[in-house]
Specification:
The complex is a heterodimer of chains A (297) and B (320).
Chain A: H1 2-11, H2 17-44, H3 48-53, H4 66-71, H5 75-105, H6 114-126, H7 131-141, H8 147-153, H9 158-169, H10 173-181, H11 186-197, H12 199-214, H13 218-223, H14 232-249, H15 261-295
Helix pairs in contact in A: 2-15, 5-8, 5-9, 5-12, 5-14, 9-12, 10-11, 12-15, 14-15
Chain B: H1 7-27, H2 29-52, H3 65-68, H4 75-82, H5 84-104, H6 106-117, H7 121-132, H8 139-150, H9 155-164, H10 175-202, H11 207-215, H12 220-231, H13 233-245, H14 252-258, H15 264-267, H16 270-279, H17 285-314
Helix pairs in contact in B: 4-17, 5-10, 5-16, 6-10, 7-10, 8-14, 13-17, 16-17
The chains are: A mainly alpha (297), B mainly alpha (320).
């Protein structure tokens, strides 16, 4: 209480030159972040003619959804959405199940082997095999080139596991003890008592996993070599990068008409807008998440 | 723990100990079932690949797999260290990452310091939201946005042409621009997120220190320099040493998506090298594994050294 009051006192000041300088720097940085997005949005709604002719295109004069219309005729967008949604819908519940059961199971290490298991998990943060043996493993398991390879390759994020476990350790032990006296089993305690009071951390970790899954591209690029199984991120990569390589080499001669700037921008939008929509929810939780995480990582 | 003095007492003691543990295991049966799915996942998808690195000492034969391929000692490593691209990739990695420490690392600290000084609370919240948003986008998206605005007809070139009359510059196709491009996009995407950690640290500083300084007539800049900055020093040190521990890795997503054939010479870091030798051209998984093992070991050593240093400075290490 006292501190809060003092803080408010400290904050009550006149607006001086330093404030103006700070505000200008901060607004400049914000502009640098926002303008590229506005440019992409603008280009995605501009006609090809305007994109080529106008010198500084930010907001198109004659907005059109032509780029989107043509983009959605490309079958890869449909495939991309389907693949990414499948990865999300199967992957995230799996992530949550593995992480919560493990975090609760290891939140008390007063039984034989628990400490060993915990350190064995931590060790994977320090040392891992990397992509090469993982790829060979997928081949040997016979799940390379199926969605399962991508889904299973990312099961538990050790960092999120630690965040969740730290939270569960902080819960009062009396809750669990009294439930045990009533004869409840561990799974029942997890679902009936622990999970309902762990909602903030569950939401944080859930959103983190969902963003990770949405952004997944590397494992998919390595494991999946099928035309009908491409996540959205790789569809974007294929469309934008392929045509940009042509630009960067700037080979004189006939430019192969690939995807126009407008369609590329529309693709970026299609992949980015869902993250934009979820961002307000993310924001509500991520600060909490990173604070808990920062304690032990 | 057990008495080593006489074998006579040991035996029953040992037996009862085992029995006690067994009772304990029985009592906690359900907990083992609880952790089983997660542990199985770690065993298969984390520990088998770690064992898979043993391919570095084997000659990989697809039919025999990771476990069955025959051992050939250090043969692969001899080849690895003789590959000039391998040595070059290490140098490239170090140069890029040292540059990150110099040019990118201080930026979020500066950002946190001045955000903290901003007195308009609502503006502060909006600005912070803007700064953190790019963190949640993949490098595929961010690189696509960058390619879009840095292209020949892109926003930046149009801007430069319009106000400074500069001919379009090929930002993405010029090797000498590549590293600055990495640092700028890195700060663009991640600074807002990293600043949150410093903000959290700043909020832990005692307000009375500021009041005392104010009474003593310290200006705001002096307060920033003499109170806020020292107040978050331990956070800065921890994050700096963590970054040093990452000197040989990191940035693959960014570099992979921002590089192209024109800039690949300055872009081939160790991770990029591993990717190239593993997934394009003639594949030799044993050779790749040898490089991957080298990478993992170096990272582990760097991290352990970093941990030691933190322990010296901070009293408690990263690893608990």
């Amino acid at each position: 209480m006292e501190i809060a009051k003092k803080k408010r006192n400290y904050n009550r000041h006149r607006f001086e030159l330093l404030d103006a300088i700070i505000l200008i720097i901060l607004l400049a940085f914000a502009t640098i972040i926002v303008v590229p997005f506005i440019s992409v949005i603008g280009t995605s709604f501009a006609t090809q003619k305007e994109a080529l002719e106008s010198t500084l295109l930010i907001i198109p004069k004659n907005p059109t959804i032509d780029n989107y219309y043509r983009l959605f005729q490309d079958p890869r967008i449909g495939i991309g959405y389907k693949t990414t949604f499948l990865i999300l819908l199967i992957g995230v519940p799996l992530n949550m199940f593995l992480t919560t059961s493990l975090a609760y199971g290891l939140s008390r290490t007063n039984y034989p082997g628990a400490k060993f298991m915990f350190y064995a998990i931590l060790l994977t943060m320090l040392f891992n095999g990397g992509i090469v043996p993982l790829y060979l493993l997928m081949l040997e398991l016979g799940i390379a080139n199926t969605l399962w390879s991508v889904i299973l390759a990312y099961g538990v994020n050790t960092f999120y596991f630690i965040i969740m476990r730290t939270y569960m350790i902080s819960l009062p032990e009396a809750l669990v003890e009294s439930a045990k006296i009533d004869g409840a089993g561990e799974w029942r305690i997890l679902f009936k008592i622990i999970l309902p009071i762990s909602k903030p951390i569950l939401a944080t970790v859930l959103l983190f996993y969902a963003v990770d899954r949405w952004n997944e591209w590397f494992n998919a690029m390595i494991f999946l070599r099928r035309k009908d199984l491409i996540p959205l991120q790789l569809v974007l990569r294929n469309i934008v990068m392929d045509s940009s390589i042509m630009d960067s080499l700037s080979i004189a001669g006939p430019r192969i008409p690939r995807f126009t700037e407008g369609i590329q921008s529309a693709t970026i939008m299609v992949v980015m807008v869902p993250v934009m929509c979820f961002f307000p929810f993310l924001q509500r939780y991520f600060v909490k998440g990173i604070m808990i995480g920062a304690v032990k990582a | 723990m057990m008495s080593q003095a006489s074998g006579y007492v040991d035996k029953p003691d040992f037996k009862s100990r085992i029995a006690r543990i067994w009772v304990n295991v029985q009592k906690n049966r359900e907990r083992y079932i609880l952790v089983l799915p997660g542990l199985v996942w770690y065993a298969i998808f984390a520990y088998i690949p770690i064992y898979g690195l043993s391919l570095a000492f084997k000659k990989f034969i697809a039919k025999l797999g990771i476990f069955g391929s025959p051992w050939i000692g250090l043969y692969n490593f001899r080849n690895v260290f003789q590959d000039p691209s391998f040595v070059e990739s290490i140098l490239t990695t170090l140069i890029i990452n040292v540059g990150r420490l110099i040019f990118v690392f201080p930026f979020p600290i500066f950002l946190a310091l001045i955000i903290n000084e901003l007195r308009l609370n609502r503006t502060k919240k909006i600005l912070q939201s803007i700064y953190t948003f790019p963190h949640f986008l993949s490098w595929v998206i961010v690189a696509s946005v960058m390619i879009n605005i840095l292209g020949q007809k892109g926003l930046v070139n149009s801007f430069l042409g319009m106000f400074f009359n500069i001919e379009p510059i090929s930002f993405l196709g010029t090797p000498s621009y590549f590293r600055p491009l990495l640092y700028i996009t890195d700060a663009w995407k991640g600074a807002g997120w990293s600043a949150i950690i410093y903000m959290a640290s700043i909020s832990g500083i005692d307000v009375e220190q500021y009041e005392a300084a104010e009474i003593d007539g310290a200006s705001r800049l002096q307060r920033m320099w003499h109170i806020t900055l020292p107040g978050i020093k331990s956070t800065i040190v921890v994050l700096f040493i963590l970054a040093v521990g990452n000197l040989m890795s990191g940035g693959f997503d960014q570099i992979f998506n921002l590089s192209n054939p024109a800039t690949i010479k300055v872009a081939e870091t160790l991770d990029m090298y591993i990717y190239r030798i593993t997934f394009s051209g003639s594949v030799d998984f044993s050779f790749s594994s040898a490089v991957a093992l080298f990478r993992s070991v170096v990272n582990l050593v760097l991290l352990l050294v970093a941990d030691r240093v933190i322990r010296r400075i901070d009293g408690s290490g990263l690893l608990g």
